[in-house]
Amino acid sequence: MRDFSNDHSALALNTATLGHNIDGHGAGWSPEQVIDACAARGYGGIVFWRHEIGDRAIEIGDRVRAAGMQVAGLCRTPFLTGRDAASNNEIKASIDMAAGLGAGVLTIVTGGTDPNTKGVLDSQKRLAERLSVIEQHAADRQIKLALEPLNPMFGGNRTCLMTTRDALNVCDLVASDWIGVAVDVYHVWWDTTLAQTLETATGRLMGYHLCDWLEDTSDMLLDRGMMGDGVADLKAIRKAVEDAGYSGLCEVEVFSSENWWKRPPGEVLDVFVERFRSHC
Amino acid sequence: MRDFSNDHSALALNTATLGHNIDGHGAGWSPEQVIDACAARGYGGIVFWRHEIGDRAIEIGDRVRAAGMQVAGLCRTPFLTGRDAASNNEIKASIDMAAGLGAGVLTIVTGGTDPNTKGVLDSQKRLAERLSVIEQHAADRQIKLALEPLNPMFGGNRTCLMTTRDALNVCDLVASDWIGVAVDVYHVWWDTTLAQTLETATGRLMGYHLCDWLEDTSDMLLDRGMMGDGVADLKAIRKAVEDAGYSGLCEVEVFSSENWWKRPPGEVLDVFVERFRSHC
Q1: What tens digit of pLDDT does each residue of A97-118 get?
Q2: Cβ-defined contact of A231 to B189 (cutoff 8 Å)
Q3: Closest approach of chain A CAs to the CA of B102, in angstroms?
Q4: pLDDT for A217-248, tens place per residue?
Q5: Nearest Cα to B73, choosing from B53, B55, B54, B87?
Q6: Which residue in the set B152, B156, B230 is minimally distant from A214, CB to CB?
Q7: Is pLDDT larger for residue A3 or for residue A156?
Q8: I want to staple A44 with a disulfide (CB 3.0 to 4.6 A). Which of A9, A29, B94, B167 is the partner?
Q9: Is the residue at B1 inside a domain?
Q10: Do A193 and B156 lie within an 8 Å CB cutoff?
Q11: Chain A residue closest to B120 (CA)?
Q12: How far A29 CA lies from chain B's nearest CA (Å)?
């Protein structure tokens, strides 16, 4: 084992980064193997995906904490808007899973534009209405709901929030302490108004996701870059996030079907630690 | 020939929409065939691409005007930023071609992030510096240079301008009457600040490009939608553009390798007229 110092305890692994359990990519590690490997490297936390948890939420959450880490989050609610929007009960079940894990934050990718609407404003209003309905369920279980704006290329069928400003606008509509925003480098790196927007986000930032935008992105969903390999100004974004009062973990989330998902998971975890210390 | 009324004289065809001369798509119509087909349908103008013009700029421009239409624009300068940035002479040659055609507007897709930079602000400054150098050449030839922001998914290797706000910021840096902005539905439809931004763009809008964003966009470059088939709020965007004082033509620009490029060009031109009248 390499001797990394402990100053990367702010680092959390999003398990999708290892590609496991997704379309056969990665090593197919169990949650326990991921927990042990992260703990051995001094990671501060882990973010899981629902399909990895099943009915083992309490067991997995306890195991993470016994290893000295946090369950930094859970990905994610089913869609709330668009043609694939889920029922309130399905949304609430994902909140219950987050509570079972002891995850403080549940990420929301909203879903796309609502049927028979044009543009995104109507869908954002619909999103706010749905959040107002489920907000009490989240509050009762002490689960923060983090709205994650996506790169505008995912508008249409995946999101109705394209910018951090959009997400904050919806927060304003709902006005709940349990609803905030997650900032993901992949989705916001290009936004020249980001620092200015984040100045208005104090107390509402609930997640910060790390990766990089490759100059030549070959696949819009599955070709994210390792920090330092792309063109995002990672240090400036992190400063803006921290200036807005964010003090949570920095979550690495690299979807990379043709590169990092094909490498040994232990090697990938080591590289993240190195890059986090040198580039983030 | 169908009997369309003349209220679509605000419509211009961007020739890429017929897919001709691009990777073997389309019918391979000559500029003369395009001119005749557009004139027969009452189009107000045509926008060509450089590779179609060669050394025939004056001849083709005259032919368009003889058919009662305008050369509404030329696509486009070589890149000004990023690793594939062209020389000043190459940029000036494209301005000369636009002048030969009698095209009032030359579109600029900027090129990507400059080598050894992070984020987009340094590249935007570099873009402004380059524009300052070539601006007089454009002024001498009475050619307006229209900065076209691209959807953020094209950040990295194609553009350093992701929003209309970005493009206007660069206009401010250069401060030339010959440099403005082109608004393309495909690139800006998602921007909830667009109308507000355009309020500050009076006198600087030099182009308006029409298509639609399909809910399920299968290819980020070549799966643009026909107006009305997607989720963009076309009427709201046009209103914002016209409220900003834009009185030029509405240019249809639909890259669609698997759908519209495979149809007979005359049919495609007819559908554009219908959709322009009903959906735009």
Answers
A1: 999 999 989 999 999 999 999 9
A2: no
A3: 35
A4: 999 999 999 999 999 999 999 999 999 999 99
A5: B53
A6: B156
A7: A156
A8: A9
A9: no
A10: no
A11: A190
A12: 32
The predicted-structure confidence for B4-51, as pLDDT tens digits, reads as follows: 445 789 999 999 999 865 555 566 889 999 999 999 999 999 999 999
Distance from CA of B155 to the nearest CA of A (A): 7
A interface with B, Cβ–Cβ < 8 A, is: 83, 112-113, 117-121, 124, 151-153, 155-157, 162-163, 165-166, 169, 189-193, 213-217, 220, 230-234, 236
Distance between CA atoms of residues A28 and A202, nearest Å: 38
Residue B61 distance to chain A (closest CA, Å):
36
**Residue B210 CB contacts under 8 Å (≥ 6 apart), including other chains:** B185, B227, B234, B250, B251, B252, B253, B276, B280
pLDDT at B1 over 50: no
Q: Are residues B119 and A163, on separate chains, in Cβ contact within 8 Å?
A: no
Inter-chain Cβ pairs, chain A and chain B, closer than 8 A: 99
The interface predicted TM-score (ipTM) is: 0.94
CB count within 10 Å of CB A192 equals: 17
pLDDT (0 to 100) of residue A196: 97
Its domain, for residue B220, covers 6-279
Task: Please state, in angstroms and as integers, the Cα–Cα distance from residue A280 to each residue in A222, A241, A242, following that order.
Answer: 21, 12, 12
Torsion of Cα atoms, B132 then B134 then B140 then B144, to 10°: -80
How many whole angstroms separate alpha carbon A263 and alpha carbon B118? 27
**Is A1 a domain residue?**
no
Residue A27 above 90 pLDDT?
Answer: no
Interface test with B, best of A124, A150, A190 (most B CBs within 10 A): A190
Query: pLDDT category, A136, cuts 50, 70, 90?
Result: very high
Number of domains in chain B: 1
In a domain, B222, yes or no: yes
B153 contacts on A by Cβ (under 8 Å): 151-153, 217, 220
- Residue A157, pLDDT > 50, answer yes
Nearest to B157 among A124, A215, A220 (CB): A215
Q: Cα Rg for chain A, rounded, in angstroms?
A: 18
- Does residue A38 fall inside a structural domain? yes
Cα-based distances in Å from A182 to A165, A205, A242, B53: 12, 6, 13, 48
pLDDT given at position A19: 86
pLDDT at A1: 42
Distance from CA of A98 to the nearest CA of B (A): 30
Q: Is A227 helix (H, G, I), strand (E, B) or coil?
A: coil
CATH of the domain at A204: 3.20.20.150
**CB A220 to CB B153 under 8 A?**
yes
Q: Any idea which of A119-123, B23-27, B237-241 has the lowest mean pLDDT?
A: B23-27
